[in-house]
Amino acid sequence: MLSPQEALDRAQDLVERARKAGADAADAVFGASSSEGIQVRLGNLEDVERSESEHISLRVFLGRRSASIGSSDLSPQALDELAARALAMAGAAPEDAFAGLAPEELLTRGPWPELDLSDPAEPSPHDLRAAAREAEEAARAVAGVTNSDGATASAGSGVFALATSHGFSGAYGSTSHSLGASIVAGEGAAKQRDYAARSAHHRADLPLPAEIGELAARRAVARLNPGRMASGPMPVVFDPRVGGSLIGNLIGAISGNAIARRSSFLLGKLEDQIFAPGTVLVEEPHRPRGLRSRPFDGEGLPTRARNLVEDGRLTGWLLDSASARQLGLAPTGHAARGGGGAPGVSVGNLHLQPGTATPAELMADIEDGVYITELIGSGVNPVTGDYSRGASGFRIVGGEIAGPVAEFTVAGNLLAMFARLTAANDLEWHRATNVPTLRVDGMTIAGD
User: Fold this and answer.
1) Terminus of the chain with fewer CB atoms < 10 Å: N or C?
2) Which residues are in the Metalloprotease TldD/E N-terminal domain (predicted)?
């Protein structure tokens, strides 16, 4: 794997080639990754995967015309051809009044915070296989488990570099480790499947493999013999592993592109009371070992901690430079770069601050409701906020978790859902978006 400095050298070299070829401005993103994964099923080695990739992308500007292009061929001749093709594409592109690099005066120059994203320990294939086997063995030892879709263990590393023609250069590396298991319980047509998985930058931050396996098995067994839900309005409680998707809907709605295109259900609601008073949604892009930690954004602007929701009110939009210009605002350091193309928008590590009630206390007054552990499909209208998704989970009867239920739909409108959302106190910190157990009153269930 290349070092961050070697990755940065490649990005800077391509920017220089583009400038020599006639670009008024340019930026280049270089990314490289390598990973190895082992899958074990029923005690036997099922699959071994090894991947390595390098990719560089170039964005050039001719006045207000721009074009983006990428390649995995990094030879000098290929890079010269890449720059020439990008300029030809830009010459044929329409003008865009909002195109351009990030404002030079806003670029971050470092030094950047130490994020501790790289683990020097590199597990061997034998280590990965042993971890996957341990997870599956623990799962298969749980009563009620009848089969396995397999357990996996993987590790990888990557590097990201960004260079611009107006003075930004930066790069950083990271590692990744993950464990997962997918387990089957029951027999015949009554079979149920569930899983458990965790990812981290450092292997030491993962649970023991046996814990992953046992959790997947308990979840699968708990789903056996599901009943059906009656239709009607009722309180809905979201397990933390699915509750984060509600925050994902919010993030999509406050992205600059959605606001600039007027395609968001939150349009015109900046600083409005969206959630209950006291609700706080925190972004922490500099959290050590955070899954979405990064020292700078995809345009070379600084990332910083901020409250996206403060006392239940939206505090601002998530803006890259293009959407900021379109809205007449300043970019917010949320630009993201992938394998090519113009920047998109992404956030750092998120968490919804917990409430004071335990999950049991949160459900104690629910006579008839549902606890959701799985959401299916993506039936969310980003323009209206209308929400409808397939779901499964458990009934809540008399304030207690009752038997499993499946094959029902949960529906509402995100504005109303956010306004009625209440958080429990069981926040955990191992996801990119971390939320406690969430309760939303007044949703509509479509069942039998």
Assistant:
1) C
2) 26-90
The two three-digit tokens of residue 340, written as one number: 């090519």
pLDDT band at 340 (very low <50, low <70, confident <90, very high): confident
Task: Decide if 205 contacts 176 (C-beta within 8 A).
Answer: no
Distance CA 74, CA 26 (A): 18
The answer to whether residues 372 and 396 touch, using CB atoms and an 8 Å cutoff, is no
Q: pTM value?
A: 0.95
Nearest to 37 by CA among 28, 27, 26, 49: 49
Residue spans of the domains in the chain: they are 4-221, 226-448
Residue for token pair 């488990």: 145
Q: What is the pLDDT of residue 7?
A: 97
Query: Residue 126 class from Cβ within 10 Å (0-12 exposed, 13-18 middle, 19+ buried)?
Result: exposed
What fold does the segment set 4-221 form as a domain? PmbA/TldD fold (3.30.2290)
Question: Per residue in 43-79, pLDDT tens?
Answer: 999 999 999 999 999 999 999 999 999 999 999 999 9
Distance between CA atoms of 339 and 31, rounded to whole angstroms? 8
Token representation of residue 208: 């023991």
8 φ, ψ to 5°? -65, -40
